[in-house]
Amino acid sequence: MKLQILILMVIATFGILTSCHSDNDSSRGKENPINGTRNMKNVSDGLQGIDLDYDKGEVVWVFDKTTGKLIVENNVITQGPKNTHRGMNSGTYDYEIKEEGGAQVLFVKGIKR
User: Fold this and answer.
1) Residues 33-53, mean pLDDT to the nearest whole number
2) What is the mean predicted confidence (pLDDT) over 49-76?
3) Are 74 and 87 in contact (CB under 8 A)?
4) Rounded CA gap, 71 and 73, in Å?
5) Beta bridge partners of 95
6) What is the model's pTM?
7) What burial letters (b/e) apply to 41-55, b meaning 16+ CB within 10 Å?
8) Among 4-8, 50-54, 73-77, whose mean pLDDT is lowest?
9) SS3 assignment, position 48
10) Structural element, H or E, at residue 34
11) Which of 87, 97, 94 is nearest to 33 (CA)?
């Protein structure tokens, strides 16, 4: 019986020591989750009743985490609501992600509205 308890304790200790690493959680919030290409799919606003769908390639954001640059390709050619709510003009912008109140917030620099 003592041997079984000893074996169980060794297995439990091994499991605890190999599954818990203090560095697992510390890097999770530091990663850039939006690196790569993103296509705008929809703009909606409940207050103004806006609900616009965009086709792939109409508004493209390319994030480069190594340079901290955001490249915006705005290919909306209509003069209607899609143009009004398309977001930023085509160009290259600096960006960063900051922790605020336990959430990651995207800040894009150089936007003039």
Assistant:
1) 83
2) 89
3) yes
4) 7
5) 108
6) 0.60
7) eebeeeeeeeebebe
8) 4-8
9) coil
10) none
11) 97
Structural tokens at position 49: 């009743």
Mean pLDDT, rounded, for 81-87:
66
Give which of 45, 73, 78 is closest to 60, Cα–Cα.
Answer: 73
Three-state DSSP string of 91-110: EEEEEEEEEECCEEEEEEEC
Q: How far apart are the first and last CA of the chain?
A: 75
Side chain identity, residue 20: C
CA separation (Å) from 83 to 7, 54, 87? 68, 11, 8
Distance CA 38, CA 31 (A): 17
What is the rounded distance in angstroms from the CA atom of residue 21 to the CA atom of residue 109? 36
Q: What is the DSSP letter of 89?
A: P
pLDDT at 8 over 70: no
pLDDT interval class at 27 (50, 70, 90)? very low
